Amino acid sequence: PRTAGWILGLLGVGFAALVGACWELFEFSIDAIFGTNAQRSGLPDTMGDVAVNIMGASYGALAAQRRLWRGTRLPLSGLLVEFCARNEIIYGAWSGRRFAPRIRKPRP
């Protein structure tokens, strides 16, 4: 059975938020260890990065859902569509329809 699209979108946004949080921890660690100032203003910089990260991930999830369900594209979603078409292991033999036909295994 296929996983519901909204669950995949939510997992994608969550994964992007996790990667963004790890990056912010990395920035903080570098500042603390080497005495640099990568974060400049601290909290406003971090909150801005997290907000932009979640907005970008949400746009990517929405673009993927629209393409898979309706066959329409959002602006700047061409790279995402190309990624879906090239990764058959993740997205199946996607032919642009809502769901690709399942491959039947021959009976013994």
UniProtKB/TrEMBL annotation:
Transmembrane segments: 6-26
Keyword annotations from UniProtKB, A to Z: Membrane, Transmembrane, Transmembrane helix
Classification via Pfam families: DUF2238
InterPro entries (alphabetical): YjdF-like (IPR014509)
Protein's UniProt name: Uncharacterized protein
